[in-house]
Specification:
about 100 residues
């Protein structure tokens, strides 16, 4: 909660504690205060919802990136295995190792 929001809520509370000459009662002021709180909460929830949507999109992007890393790693392991087999065949042909 920002300082401005807190100041606004304090002002609303102070206004609710005063009975205005225009005929508003303490109950009216209390209802207005509750409505203001609800509006503030709704705005905060909307903002968090937007931020959460952005975070989910970024998480999905990271998941795709990690999946790509695993695919690359699997490809590297496959290449390594093929090179190891080729090296073994060369060593056998050159009789560097026992068959």
């Amino acid at each position: 909660m920002t300082v401005e929001a807190i100041d606004s809520l304090v002002d609303l509370c102070e206004d609710a504690c005063r009975v205005e000459a225009g005929g508003q009662t303490m109950a009216d002021n209390t209802q207005n205060l509750v409505l203001e709180h609800l509006r503030y909460i709704r705005a905060a929830v909307d903002q968090h919802s937007e931020e959460f949507t952005e975070v989910k999109a970024r998480l999905s992007s990271l998941e795709r990136l990690v999946a790509g890393v695993f695919v690359d790693k699997a490809d590297q392991n496959d290449r390594y295995d093929r090179l190891a087999k080729r090296l073994e065949r060369v060593e056998k042909r050159l009789e560097l190792i026992e068959p």
